[in-house]
Structure formats: C-alpha cells, structure tokens
Amino acid sequence: MEQISPYLQFRNVTKFFGDVPVVQEPFNLSIPAGQFTVFLGPSGCGKTTLMRMIGGLDTPTSGEILLQGRPVGEPDIRRGMVFQSYSSFPWLTVRKNIEFGMRFRKDLSFGQKKDRAEHFLKLVGLGDFATSYPSRISGGMRQRVAIARTLAADPDVLLMDEPFGALDANLREDLQFELRKIQKNSGKTTIFVTHDVEEAVFLADRIIVFGSRPAHVIADIDVTSLIGAERNETVRDSERFFHLRTEILHRLRGRQVKAVAA
Amino acid sequence: MTAVASSSRKGSGGLFRFRASIPQSATLLAAVTGAAAFLGGWQLLVSLHVVAPVFLPTPLKVAQTFIRMCTDGSMLPNTVVSVRRVWLAFLLSALLAVPLGILMSGYRIIGATLEPMIDFIRYLPVPALVPLAIIWFGVGESTKIFLLWLGTFFQLVLMIAADMKRIPNEYFETAYTLGARPRETLLPVALPAMLPQLMDSMRISLGWCWTYVIIAEIVASDSGLGFVIWTARRFMKTDQVMAGVIMIGLIGLVTDQCLRLLHRKLFRYQ
Questions:
Q1: pLDDT (tens digit per residue) in B149-186
Q2: Is the peptide bond before A214 cis (omega within 30 degrees of 0)?
Q3: Which one of A77, A78, B24, B51 has the minimum C-beta count within 10 Å?
C-alpha cells in the first residue's frame, strides 16, 4: 500500500472511566489497510476499550482515532462489531439475522439484499440452516451468523471482541481457520481482541501485546515476518509457531510478575 | 452393584428426594390427590357438623349453585360486564405503559423525572382512592375503569421499564455498528428483544385487574361479579358467594393458560 497516512490511527489516546485510568499513557498506533491486527492481553487490560473506541462505542478522554485520516465519531456502518455473547438476534432466523446487516443500507435494493444475504450465508457454511433460529444451532454457528451479518453490511473495519471466547477448543480452531481465510479474501482491516495467545498467533498479521491495566504495550509483533502469511494446521503444529507462542507467553508472564512485585 | 444401589435409593427416598425430578404421572396424580383431599376435607367439615352449612355449604351444593347461576342468567351477563371492564382497563394501561416504560428506560432523564412519582403512586392502595374516584367520575363505568387503570398502570410502567433495561447492550451496539441510529433500534431491536418479558409483565398485571375490578364492583356498582358476590352476602347465600368467586378463579385460570400458550407459540425461537 502506497498510502501516506495510515488507514487507522490512534493518536495520543487516553481513557478514564471517572477517575479510573484504563489507558493512562497516551496510546499511539498506526494500522495499515487490510491488516489483521490482534490486541492480546490479560482480562481487564483495556484492549477491549481501545477497540470499542474505534467503533465509537466508547470515546477517548483525550486524543483521537482517525480512520482514513478523519476522526471517527458515533458508531456507524463503516466499523462493524462482532461480540462474544448476544452476538446474534435470537428472534430472527439465520437468514434474517444476516439480512439485518443490510437493514440500514439504503444503497441496496430489496433483491440485492436477498442475494447478498444468500452469498454470505453460503460463505460461512450455513446454507442448510437459513431458516433455523439461533437457539437451535451451535455456539460456533451463532458466531458465524454474526460474522456473516457484519460482512454483509460491508464495513471498512471489522472489530471482533473475543468472538470465539465461549467456544470449545476444536470449534475454535475451525473458526479461526475460516476467519483468517475470509479476512484475507475480503481484505477487510480487522482488529481482533483476545487473551488467548495461540489464537492471536494463528490469526494475526500483527499482534499488539498489552500488559495489565492501565493499558500499555509490551510488544508489537510482526507475525507474518516470523511465521509467514499462510495459516493452517501444519503451521499451527510447526516449531516456529510454537516458539512464537512461547515467547509471547513468557513476555506476558514476565511483565505480570514485575507488576505484582512493584 | 451400582444398579442395585441406585434402585434401592429410588425405592427409599423415591418421590421425596430433595430437588429431584419426579415422573409426569406422579405430577398429575399428586395434583388430583391434593384437590380430592381438599374437597373431601371440606365435605367432611360440613357432614360432621363442624361448620354450619349456612357458613360453609358443601362442595356439591356450591357446584349445583354454580351451574344454576350459569343457566338462569344471574351469572353470565355479570361475568361479561366484569370481563369487559377488566380488559378495557387493562388495554388502556398497557397502551400507555408500554411506550412510557420504554421511554423511561431509553432516556435516563425521562426515567429520573417520572420514577420517584410513579413509585409513590403505585403504593397508594386502590380502595383508598375509591372516594376520590367517585367524586371525580360519579358511579358510572368510568369510575371502575379509572380505578382499575390506577391499580395497574403505575405498576406496569415500572415493569416495562425494567424489561427494557434488561436487554443486553450488545444488541443495541451491534445495531449501531450496522448503521442504526439509536432511535432506529426501538422497533427492530428493543421491541422484539423485550417482547417475551413484556408479555409476561402484561399477563401479571391482567391478574391484578381482576383484584381491583371486584373491589370497584363491591364498592360502587350494580353489575359485575363483584356485585353478584356482594349481593349474595347480604342474603347470607354463601353458596352463591362461593360460586361467584369460583367463576373469577376459572376466568383467571383460563386467561392465564391461553396467554401462556400464546407465549409459547409466539416465542418458539427461545
């Protein structure tokens, strides 16, 4: 990308909830278009708040967040969010959930919306469950519904808040594989929040490792240059994957130990 | 070994194991047995002259009176009158309470303005307001509707506000990041998300309406089931009093079951 200004940028961002600092030190970060960035860190370290601020669901106490050079404001369709829980609407069928993603798009005709819904239904492999309600399908499928719904809205930035956090291990790996593929095919700039190191390494082009609250960056890791862009089960079992995972774990632990000692 | 152990445990505590489930047949049998024991005990009280029949007629006598009153035109027209009052007042309550409850919860400032007032009013006992209602509305239909409305509206508004508050924030935030403005989420997100709870709240307040309609009809009416009961009391017709009460119970039971069925049908997705 020959962009001069970064696609997404945090500029001296701080965040306090009342007197409680979540991000105390001014936070700066530039994210190029199309990058899969993972915010990794322990629970309550402020990574989710930072991501929510991209979505406009929280606002910085000071500083600003720029998307394509312009400050982000209230939430809008350009920044789509997928949550860990309550991610799909239980009163809508799978297809209606996905169609909901386009409900507020005025540029599409009724027919186009139907077609797009069908496309994303197939993309996430839920064609056979189009008329099922979320309570009748598995947790993994529910997360696929949410991902398809957000993709159908066609946001510039995809924000994901531990979307696979409640799933069991096997399912998680499958979804990670699919998400990575979908992200690369769509080229959507993606911010993914997790506390799971392996998940972070498998998904990310780049990992921002956070220490405990108030949020501060321990490491900024270019994953692609270390383990390549291709991600599959072979890569997951490879030595370089294991090494990177271990190194990040050590860094997280070292930092936490220090924090306790201080 | 294990089979023996488990079967012996079933044999000993059986139906009386703490928090354990029981077979469906046992549930039915228990209900029938309970009711039969109640009616039998009642019959016995009268047969053994523990209580005089003028104070407590036998179950059979009450049943006979109930059927007679249903056929001779003394019960059914009055039932219709009461049902009409209950539903009219209930719909009036619901129609106002639903939007106001949603507004109170959606906009904190509206909630902060109204909640203390409503909290106060809802603790005012309806019977204490009867004189005021009569002064304002006379003894016509509007007095009863007003009293019923008074008794349910303020409770219902707070319940609806609470139902709205319980909707997970994620639903709204998802909609925002799909391009919805806050007020655009009311119909497609807030309403369906709270509807199951909302229907339950309405079902409960419909039950209260029945309490208040009887009070209103006893104090200020010449029709309705409350009037039937109160008139019967004046002539010591205990069997008619009880028949009237049973009618109210039956209507309550049938309405409740119908609404539950509707709930199950509507919210099959849950």
A1: 999 999 999 999 999 999 999 999 999 999 999 999 99
A2: yes
A3: B24
